[in-house]
Amino acid sequence: MKDIIEGRVWVLGEDVDTDQIIGGKYLTIIDPDELKKHVFEIALPEFAKGARAGDIVVAGINFGSGSSREHAPQALRAIGTGAVVADSFARIFYRNSINLGLPTIEAQGVRAIFEMGDPARIEMRAGRITNTRTGASVTFPPLPHHLLELLEVGGLVEKVRLELAARSAGTPA
Predict the structure, then answer these.
(1) What pLDDT is attached to residue 115?
(2) Average pLDDT, integer, range 91-106
(3) Residue 94 and residue 78: Cα distance in Å, rounded?
(4) 18 pLDDT band (50/70/90 cuts)?
(5) Under a CB-based contact definition with an 8 Å cutoff, are residues 111 and 11 in contact?
(6) Which of 28, 38, 51, 130 has the smallest count of CB within 10 Å of its CB?
(7) For residue 52, with 0-12 CB atoms within 10 Å meaning exposed, 13-18 middle and 19 or more buried, which class applies?
(8) Dihedral angle sign, alpha carbons of residues 16, 22, 24, 25
(9) CA 152, CA 66: separation in Å to the nearest integer?
(10) pLDDT band at 173; cut points 50, 70, 90
(11) CB contact set of 12 (below 8 Å; sequence gap of 6+)
(12) Which residues make Cβ contacts (< 8 Å) with residue 162, sequence separation at least 6?
């Protein structure tokens, strides 16, 4: 994860649940390359084919509600989503995303400053997201150090792998 994330914005509405992110019929898929073909299949059908690495998903309140499945943030990460920014998140989706290394940011009023396709710049440590087309921006509380650390190494599994490797090599993690 970089301190600065820049990408093109995909705008969604409020109450986007995990079934809208990745439909329940795809829960048997474990291959990320296959899973990413079905992201937002109903809610935003052009996303799976049109998304580019680094693109940013912007939404309203309660993003990621519904089931606690990890498939939703896994699919978003697999397609190369640079970050998900919303007015608010379902807690389990938020934590699953961070644990999987997907930057997930709560920024009140973010949806109001973007239109589909606008360019965005996120300053993770400064706590600001800017629409670089219009200059409008909103601030957010920067993520705590321990969550930034998880994102920097690619998620919880990667952090544990690094710590175990450091221990077996006899060096502090």
Answers:
(1) 98
(2) 96
(3) 16
(4) very high
(5) yes
(6) 28
(7) exposed
(8) positive
(9) 27
(10) low
(11) 40, 43, 44, 57, 58, 59, 60, 63
(12) 153, 173
- pTM, full prediction: 0.92
pLDDT of the residue at 172 = 67
Beta strands in the chain (DSSP E): 4-11, 56-59, 83-86, 104-106, 119-123, 128-131, 137-139
Domains defined along the chain, listed by start: 4-142 (3.20.19.10)
| SS3 label, residue 63 | strand
Does 99 have pLDDT greater than 70? yes
Phi-psi domain of 62 (left: phi exceeds 0; alpha: psi -120 through 50; beta: other): left
- Alpha-carbon distances, residue 148 vs 32, 57, 126 (angstroms): 23, 19, 12
- Does the pLDDT at position 45 exceed 70? yes
Report H helices in 24-65. 32-35, 47-50
**pLDDT at 1 (0 to 100):** 60
Q: Which residues contact 158 (CB under 8 A, 6 or more apart)?
A: 101
**Token duo for residue 90:** 């379902």
Q: What is the mean pLDDT of the chain?
A: 94
